[in-house]
Amino acid sequence: MAGYDDRDGFIWMDGKLVDWRAANVHILTHALHYASSVFEGERCYNGKIFKSVEHSERLRKSGEYLDMPLPYSVAEIEAAKEATLKANNLTDAYVRAIAWRGAGEDMGVASLKNPIRMAVAVWTWGNYYGDAKMKGAKLDIAKWKRPSPETIPHAAKAAGLYMICTMSKHAAEAKGCSDAMMFDYRGYVAEATGANIFFVKDGEVHTPLPDAFLNGITRQTVIGMLKGKGIKVHERHIMPAELESFQQCWLTGTAAEVTPVGQIGDYNFEVGSLTQQISTDYEKLVRA
């Protein structure tokens, strides 16, 4: 497949659809130098973006966290996503909405004089972890930790927060793993590089408290599904030593959807019935 800069199609950019290859920014764009960028990852199923409004709301909220108020309303962002899907004739697709500080009068740390820009791109994308949907993903344990909320706006889906995720995933792939699990600054289990994590023990579910990382929309959806089935969910701090006692594990995220985990470091997990059930039920929900 061609690189992401060399494809046919259209990208919505600053209020209008432009040719895919012409959707460019200047080299002195502030976001390129100082990570002044926020984004959303969404999936469209059968012509409908799952939790679309929630994603648009979070995009605007992320912008606020970065002192970067978006010049588009939720309704305008929704219209942009729909227009981009239609222009590319896609009904099942990944949707990437992104906003950033562009090039302008400022080229230092401060950027208030620079315009806030936005774009929406869509493309077809299969399983994020390939065949792990069936046999379970293999995860490394990252050396990098999710930082303290006193050092970053952890509730924002901001580009700069993913730097250590990229580094951790590269290290994991070099070891033959699909991804890496990260601890937080206190040493508690946190998440994978782009997905939240769940564990099962004796029929009950345990998942890290999102007080130092993004509380994913898919995460919240799955917790609601579990509680709707009468399954007890413990949102709490999880110590690394507890990994040995868990029987099942899965990841959640817009790209990951619900992906079973078969191994984290030296710890092994079964792709059990609850994991399979939640994965199947989530697939039905997003296509309903």
Blueprint (SSEs and pairs):
Blueprint: E1 10-13, E2 16-19, H1 30-34, E3 37-45, E4 48-49, H2 52-65, H3 74-87, E5 93-101, E6 116-123, H4 132-135, E7 137-141, H5 163-174, E8 179-183, E9 189-192, E10 196-201, E11 204-208, H6 217-228, E12 233-236, E13 248-253, E14 257-264, E15 267-268, H7 273-286
Parallel strand pairs: 7-8, 7-14, 11-12
Antiparallel strand pairs: 1-2, 1-6, 3-4, 3-5, 5-6, 8-9, 10-11, 10-13, 13-14, 14-15
Helix pairs in contact: 2-3
What can you tell me about this protein's structure?
The protein is built from seven helices and 15 strands. The chain is α+β, with helices and mostly antiparallel strands. The protein folds into two domains: 10-123, D-amino Acid Aminotransferase, Chain A, domain 1 (2-Layer Sandwich), CATH 3.30.470; 132-286, D-amino Acid Aminotransferase, Chain A, domain 2 (Alpha-Beta Barrel), CATH 3.20.10.10. Strands 7, 8, 9, 10, 11, 12, 13, 14 and 15 form a nine-stranded mixed β-sheet that branches. The longest helix is centred in the N-terminal third of the chain and has 14 residues, at 52-65.
Name a few traits of the molecule.
288 residues, alpha+beta, D-amino Acid Aminotransferase, Chain A, domain 1, 9-stranded mixed β-sheet, 6-stranded antiparallel β-sheet, 15 strands, 28% strand, globular
Radius of gyration: 19 Å
* Total number of domains: 2
CATH class of the largest domain: Alpha Beta
Kindly report the name of the CATH homologous superfamily of the largest domain. Answer: D-amino Acid Aminotransferase, subunit A, domain 2
State the helical fraction.
25-40%
Q: How many E-type strands?
A: 15
The residue-averaged pLDDT reads 96
Amino- and carboxy-terminal Cα gap = 30 Å
In terms of per-residue confidence, which ranges show pLDDT below 50 for 5 or more consecutive residues? none
Shape: globular
Beta content:
25-35%
By CATH, the architecture of the largest domain is named: Alpha-Beta Barrel
The CATH topology annotation of the largest domain reads as D-amino Acid Aminotransferase, Chain A, domain 2
Largest sheet, strands/sense/barrel:
9 strands, mixed
The SSE string, one letter per element, is EEHEEHHEEHEHEEEEHEEEEH
The computed structural class is alpha+beta
Number of helices: 7
